[in-house]
Design a protein that fits this description.
The chain has about 230 residues and is of the alpha/beta class. The protein has one domain: TIM Barrel, CATH 3.20.20.70. Helix content is about 45%, strand content about 15%. The protein contains 10 helices and 8 strands. The protein has helices spanning about 10-20, 35-50, 65-80, 90-100, 120-130, 135-145, 155-165, 195-200, 210, 215-230, and strands spanning about 5, 30, 55-60, 85, 110-115, 150-155, 170-175, 205. The protein has an 8-stranded parallel beta barrel, surrounded by 5 helices. It is globular. The structure holds cytidine-5'-monophosphate (C5P). Cytidine-5'-monophosphate (C5P) binds near residues 8 and 153.
């Protein structure tokens, strides 16, 4: 299991200060919409400068026609990030087109498919997808697996079933982690680190419980200590 820290603070300065605090730890940094739209490529470069060994996950959840997605995937590969994601609901052709295009890159980033956003509850999910979260997440994951993606973004509660339906090596990255039962915020399906470990989660994503903590560094240390026991 590898911790992924969400850099969702209101300014580049604050995100970089958090990265600076955490530069001594072996963690992934998740750059999402807010940071990337505002701070772009220079922000990625600044993170690499702070620690060239930070693993970077660009969480832009691409969703468009296959060719546009593959063009964007190539640009992302050129940025030198280690992982990014696309929406599984963009479909098999989009997934395959993205993976085909990235096969030209010697060191391509890992590609994950978003199944069901962790902010969905069952009723709101069904209003869009007309299936239960469990069933749809498993169907999306199987599609992603068959099209050569490396894993999925899902909630902890689908992680085990997705691995059973695909492969143990098929990665699960799970937001909505409240390491020790902290406040859920807008997340509907939250899980502790212990539960995440039990469900085989590869990458627990933690945002607010770290950056809103009075001592984010101590919090990360506490989380890493627990992860080391799994
Ligand atoms: O603060 P919190 O720990 O809830 O942050 C979770 C992070 O994971 C946010 O950056 C959010 O955008 C992201 N995310 C999510 N659910 C997904 C995919 C990404 O919460 N399905």
């Amino acid at each position: 299991m590898e911790l992924c820290v969400a850099l969702d603070l209101p300014s580049a300065k604050e995100n970089l200060a958090l990265a600076e605090l955490l530069k001594g730890y072996n963690v992934w940094m998740k750059v999402g919409f807010r940071a990337y739209i505002r701070d772009g490529k220079p922000f990625i470069e600044a993170l690499k400068k702070i620690n060239p060994d930070f693993k970077l996950f660009l969480d832009l959840k691409l969703y468009d026609i296959p060719n546009t997605m593959a063009d964007a995937a190539e640009e992302i590969a050129k940025l030198g990030v280690d992982m990014f994601n696309i929406h599984a609901s963009a479909g098999s052709v989009a997934m395959k087109t993205v993976m085909d295009r990235l096969s030209n890159y010697e060191q391509r980033p890992l590609v994950l498919a978003v199944t069901a956003l962790t902010s969905f509850d069952e009723a709101n999910f069904q209003a869009v997808y007309e299936k239960s979260i469990d069933a749809k997440a498993e169907q999306f994951a199987t599609m992603a697996y068959e099209n050569g993606l490396d894993g999925v973004v899902c909630s902890t509660f689908e992680s085990r079933a997705i691995k059973n339906a695909t492969s143990d090596d098929f990665l699960t990255l799970c937001p909505g982690i409240r390491p020790f039962g902290e406040d859920a915020g807008d997340q509907q399906r939250v899980a502790t680190l212990n539960l995440a470990a039990k469900e085989g989660v590869d990458y627990p994503v933690v945002g607010r419980p770290i950056y809103k903590d009075a001592n984010p560094k101590a919090k990360v240390e506490e989380i890493l200590k627990v992860i080391a026991t799994f």
